[in-house]
Amino acid sequence: MAIIVSALHLIAIACKWASVIYISKPLIVVFLLQVWNYQADSSSNQHIKQWFMMGLMFSLVGDVVLMNKQFVYGILFFLGAQCCYTVTFTKLYPWRTKDIIPAIPAATYMAFLLWVLLPKVGNLLIPITIYAFVISMMLWRALCITALKNMLAYLLACGSILFVVSDSCIAIDKFIHPIPYHRIVIMSTYIAAQVLLCFATIKLTQTDQLKTAKGE
């Protein structure tokens, strides 16, 4: 159902159906919450389930707030979402010394984006900087999971990268230069990110390989 609503939402953007856009956007995360609630492992990993669910709930409120043109509050709610996702991924795959390696591309991208954005953001310098740091942490922890070397880990990493791409497009479009078809670009990458993160996290909580990795 989430896929159908997502497709409807993108069609509504292309066709400029304002009322359909307004209704379908929050429904995407609502259906992902339902999928998560029914499919996530109910017998174990409850702490992971709760953290990821909170991330989806923050995302849902953030979507509604951004539809009402409240950009700063949108940043705050998605900041909460990124914090929850970061905790989720850290619990999925706890810290190891070798995790410093995937921190390099995440930190490099954050530094470059802030270098481009900060001269343009005016009085939003502090919230933009904090958000960039936290989403880079989320990206880093997701990239660390690729050490499992399985398809689910790679899908999770792809989801985190798409989330960063989506939010970067929002920032570039708002502060640097308008992006052609920006709403479709932003929403298609955002939807793909949330779907991949949800699917991969559900499946990773159910895999024996994850339990083995925690025991290393």
UniProtKB/TrEMBL annotation:
Keywords: Membrane, Transmembrane, Transmembrane helix. The keyword Transmembrane helix applies. It is found in: Membrane. InterPro entries: TMEM86B-like. One of its GO terms (cellular component) is membrane. It is a multi-pass membrane protein. GO terms for molecular function: hydrolase activity. The chain crosses the membrane at residues 20-38, 73-93, 100-118, 124-144, 151-172, 184-202. Pfam families: YhhN (PF07947). PANTHER family: GH04784P. Belongs to the TMEM86 family. This is Lysoplasmalogenase. It comes from Uabimicrobium amorphum.
